[in-house]
Every structure is written in structure tokens, then in C-alpha cells.
Amino acid sequence: MEVVLQNSFERTPGTTDKGAGISDEIKIGPAEVLAIKVGLAIPWNKIRLLRRWLKASNVSLACEERMRHVSKRIVDDNIQGELAPFSFTLTSGGEELRAAPLVFIPNLIQKVTQLLDENHRTSRLTWHNGVIPENEVWLKLGGDKGGGTFKANFQIVNVAAPNSVQNTCVFCCFAAGDSFANLHIALDRYKEQCIKSNEITCRQYTLKVFLSGDYEFLSKFYGLSGASGAHPCPFCLIANAEMATPLIERGHAPSRTLDGIEEQYLFYLVSGSVRKQAQHFYNCIFEPIFNIPLEQEAKIAASTRAVKKGFLFNEGPFVKELDKALQGFGVHRQQYFGGAFVGNHVHAALKVSNINKWLTSILCAARANLPHKAEMVENETVKFLNVFTLFAKCHAIYDNNFIDETNVEKLGQCIKEFLSYFRTAFPGATIPIKMHMLEDHATEWVRLTHVGFGLLGEQGAESIHAKFNSLGRAYTAIPDRVERLKCIMKEHLVSIAPDMVAAIPPPKKRKKSLDDT
């Protein structure tokens, strides 16, 4: 194998073998080799082997000492790890405390400042054509569980691709579930760094912090009991039963505030912390983790996930026909169940032409397999076609980076038409919490920031799990669980350093097909 790989490299003109005169040696510096290492997720011993192979073809890689020096400069010994007591749910019911690895960056602001300086030095900072005020840097704080670990992360929004995995910095990671107790165990250490303030001066910029995550994460972050509660909305105090009534008939419910959540949580504690009584305290059962104002929750409308209700995993003629239609425009249901169903798939599924394709596939399956039900299915298909088309109009507006006042008004009208038709076409259907958030809060949040949901979304946080899994395979031989997780975190921090990102050659842009336009 080694001989085959050695012979696979062609000599450049003018090069010779050893002892045959002057040779044109190709030298690759430490930053570039380190970028290769973390980009391919390979351990140090494989780099040593690669160095020998390339040396035989007159390609010289920087020495390991220089590479480790670059890595240390990036990480700066700013990672700590320990076995911490986390709560685990038992299969038989109940919970127990077990020691699990926790790895974290102690000084969050210091890490943010370091990345901000490096992005400034490499000319990667942008204000998105005036979307962000020139004296501000926006920061997204988020978290998500996947691959057996919960990862708290931040992203600097002032870069060209703010949702990229290469712009997602994990600052705290633990191998346990994301329960209320576990989140507090891991993240309470950062509360003092942001206490009573979400605006911190970082160099010459004001750092404005947004919270980004799915509905479950936002609920836990603010200490709310979630979708099963009588008051499930993280933005207002609306009761679950009131969501079915159109907004124009009931008006806006009182808004939640940080002070209000903390006050209701204290009342809940004094009353004995009985979970069944949480509705009397607006479902405030824990104190908020950070003091980030609720109007700066970035993920207002996780309602793009509503489209996923049509992707239930099953077998049969209907599902098979649906699969064929979805795969025709690059969407796979398996990606949803594998955690790889991201915003791009939602964009594709919500194109009007594609909506017709996957709904028509279901209708064709009904005509072939249930001819006596074909008329009923056709009537229902028309309803779904209309409701998804109306929702697609909303999605097309709020998915933009910048939304001017005209489009804010247009978004409000599109949401009104979507909800009105949904209630008429499906009178017995419940209004889920995410649809309520779309109806009651999406327009006012967009009007406040004039920024779409895509810019401040959670896509990078969801995609980081695959990256950690890839990095983790290089360190499976380390028996110490804490040390293993620390190595993965170090590799991750090196891989997102602006110098490392700049060293990776960009992919060749493919030509768009007619279906992509």
C-alpha cells in the first residue's frame, strides 16, 4: 500500500531523486498542514505516516513541533475538563446522578474576543450591507444535543456565512441529556459573565447577544416547562386553549419578561415546587440560565419545521411514491431522522413546483391503490396544496437576511392569510405552539430587527454534531473519557480558527441545473 501511494505522486518538472542533483522541493507550512489534519479529522500518527509518503515525492511537511505550536497558540490552554455529576433518566423511570465528562472554555468573553480579533485581522468581518449597525457585533448563543453530547455554542454573525459549521464555536460540551438540571450544572458558570447585561463592549464594538435554538432549548433556557404546559409560549402569557382563536379576535397576550419569569419562579418555589401546579405560575419552573432579553430570541419561527410533519417514517405505496418525488429535488426523509435535515431541504420542499410534485405523488398512489378513495384524497390534496403554498409565501419573506418595512407588512398579511385558511380548511386541528409564535410574534420581531430568521438561525448548531463525530473517531483509543472529549474540543477549536479556515481551498462551484433556478 505504501509503495502504491508513493508512486501515485507525479514529480514536477525539474525534480530529481536523492543524490541526482538539485531538486525542486515543495514545502507546506505548519498552518496548512494543521488545516489538513483537522479538516480530514486524522490523528498525529497518520500525519507522521503522510509526511513519510510525501517526503518520498519531494513534498516536505512542516515539523510536528511547529504544528503543535500553532495549535497551542489557537487553543491557548483555554480548555478545562472534569467528571461532573449529571442527571440521567432510567429506563424503569426516575433519574439518577452519574459522573460524565464535561469540557468547557472558562472565559467565554475572552474566546469571543480572540475570534473577533482573528476575523478582523483576516478581513472576514462584515456588517451585511448595513443590516447590522456599524458599531455592533452580533453574537448568537445556542445549544443542541446530538451524538451523545450536548454542545453549547456561539456564532459571530458579522461574517459572510454566519450559520457555517466553520463559524460555530462550541464552548461547553457534556456527555449527558439536556435536562433543566444538567443545563444549569454546565452553564451556570457563565451567568456571571453576562449578568444583568446582554451588551458587552468588545474591542471598539458593542457586542449584542441573541439566543438561538429550537423551541425545546429556548423553553429550558428560560426555565419554562415546554409545549405540554398551560402557558407554553416563551414570549407571552397566552393560555394553550386561547391559541385556536384568531389573533384579530383575542388580541395579543401580555408579554413575558425576565423579571416576570424570575418572580413567578420564586412563587413556584415558595408554593412547594409541585409540577402539576406550574400552570398557576405561567409554567415558570426554573430560573433563566442567562439574562438575555426575550425579544432577542433569534429563533422566533421554528415553524419551518412544520413541513416535516409530512415526512413520517413508514413503509407502503404512499411513502414510496413520496420518497421518489422528494428525491427528485434532493430531499430525503432519512436525512430528517438522521439529523441532517437542514434549512436547504426546507427551501427545496417549499418551492411551489416541488409542493405540486410531492403532493401529486400521493394522489397518484391513491388512484393506483385506493381508487374508491381517490376523490376524497384529491379533495384533501387541494387543501394541503393551498396551505403549503400559503406557508411558502411566508417562508420566502422571513428567510431573507434583510426585511424592509414594506416586506414586514407583507409578511404580516401572508401569515394572516395562511392561518385563516388553515383554520377554515382544518377546523378540528389544533394550533401548535410554533404556529402561534408565527401568528403572534414573528412580525413584531422582524419589525424590531429587520432581520430574517435565516441569518440568526440554528443550522450551524445542528450541523456541528456530524463534525464532532468525525473528529471523535480519531481519538476513540483514548481510554480517559474526559481527556478524549478535551482532544475533540481542541481539534474543533483549531478547525474553526480563521487562519485554518482560510487555509482550506474553496470547493469548485458547480454549474446550476435548471431545477436549481
Structure overview:
The protein has helices at about 1-5, 30-40, 45-55, 65-75, 110-120, 180-185, 190-195, 215-220, 245-250, 260-270, 315-325, 335, 345-350, 350-370, 375-400, 405-425, 435-440, 440-450, 460-470, 480-495, 500-505, and strands at about 25-30, 60, 80-90, 95-105, 135-145, 150-155, 170-175, 200, 205-210. Helix 2 (about 30-40) packs across helix 20 (about 480-495) and helix 15 (about 375-400) packs antiparallel against helix 16. The two termini are about 45 Å apart. It has about 525 residues and is of the alpha+beta class. A 7-stranded mixed sheet has the order 3-4-7-6-5-9-8, with helices on both faces. The chain has a two-stranded parallel sheet with strand order 1-2.
> What separation lies between the terminal Cα atoms?
45 Å
Computed structural class: alpha+beta
In total, the number of strands is: 9
What is the rounded Rg? 26 Å
Order of helices and strands: HEHHEHEEHEEEHHEEHHHHHHHHHHHHHH
The total count of helices amounts to: 21
Question: What profile does the largest beta sheet have?
Answer: 7 strands, mixed
Based on Cα principal axes, name the global outline: globular
Percent strand equals 5-15%
At a glance:
With 517 residues, the chain is an alpha+beta fold. 44% of the residues lie in helices and 12% in strands. Strand 3 and strand 4 (95-104) form a beta hairpin.
Name its key features:
517 residues, alpha+beta, two-stranded parallel ribbon, 44% helix, disordered N terminus
